[in-house]
Write a structure and sequence with these properties.
The structure is a single chain. The chain has 265 residues and is α/β, with parallel strands linked by helices. It has one domain: Rossmann fold (3-Layer(aba) Sandwich). Helix content is 44%, strand content 14%. Strands 3-2-1-4-5-6-7 form a 7-stranded parallel β-sheet, with helices on both faces. The longest helix has 28 residues. The radius of gyration is 18 Å and the shape is globular. The relative contact order is 0.14.
Length: 265
């Protein structure tokens, strides 16, 4: 009986925005599975310790690079450093992103452009430049991190939702354009995940989160998203292309996440 292969051993993976939260968990999970990981953040002080921790553990090696993925030249340097140090790129995880909460009429032009740059344009830069390496090699897997807020209305997050929705459409298009070159392109749309970014954006701390059993898995952990990413990166997902996998848990009937968190938005 054939067994699916969820392994990523001997692969080289690039993970953006890996200093904390989902990106950090993705990097740690892939490295624990035997992949070498090239990880970036805007601050070496924040990304360096993550790489050190990965290198101290069993599994693949980690390369830390300071990179602002909103700047194409910096991304080009990041990709070049990855190839120079690790030899290739087999997996790209476009995880870098961020948001702030504001009504649409209160979002300035600069505020809108900042969120689009950080979430959408960074994905474009990394996909084009790392994708070039993949096309010159043996192909690979691109995994974009979107959000459930890119799939349905997100009051207070119109800028973030628009950028995340665009990532989903970009995923579908690239999957078709790059299929003949051996590159699969998929997307993960997380629901509410217990991360430092969520705590900062919503003004709540992890200790304020209600227990998972109370909200029936509506609140996820970053490791659970990392597991989905590893599946998409592995050969077990060889027939999955152009898809968005939504990971948001199961809501309880009549349950309100805003009520559970004590939020009024």
């Amino acid at each position: 009986m054939r067994k699916p292969d969820y392994g990523v051993e001997n692969e080289t993976a690039v993970v953006t925005g890996a200093s904390q939260g989902i990106g950090k968990s993705i990097a740690e999970t892939l490295a624990a599975g035997g992949a070498d990981v090239s990880i970036c953040s805007r601050s070496m002080d924040r990304i360096g310790p993550v790489a050190d921790s990965i290198n101290d553990a069993e599994g693949g090696d980690a390369l830390a690079v300071e990179c602002d993925v909103r700047e194409r030249e910096r991304v080009e340097e990041f990709v070049e450093a990855t190839v120079d140090e690790l030899g290739d790129i087999d997996v790209l995880v476009n995880n870098a992103g961020g948001e702030f909460v504001a009504n649409f009429e209160d979002i300035s032009e600069n505020g809108w452009e900042t969120i689009v740059d950080l979430n959408l344009n960074s994905t474009v830069h990394c996909s084009q430049l790392a994708g070039e390496v993949m096309r010159e090699g043996d192909g690979g897997s691109v995994i974009n991190i979107s959000s459930v807020n890119g799939q349905h209305a997100a009051p207070g997050e119109s800028h973030y939702g628009a950028a995340k929705a665009a990532i989903i459409r970009l995923t579908e298009t690239l999957a078709v354009e790059w299929a003949d070159e051996g590159i699969r392109v998929n997307c993960v749309a997380p629901g509410l995940i217990q991360t430092p970014g969520v705590a900062e954006t919503l003004g709540i701390q992890s200790d304020d989160m209600p227990p998972r059993e109370k909200v029936e898995r509506r609140i996820g952990h970053s490791e659970e998203i990392a597991d989905v990413v590893q599946f998409l990166a592995s050969s077990a997902a060889s027939f999955v292309n152009g898809e968005t996998l939504t990971a948001k848990g199961v809501p309880r009937a009549g349950n309100s996440m805003s009520q559970d968190l004590g939020l009024e938005r």
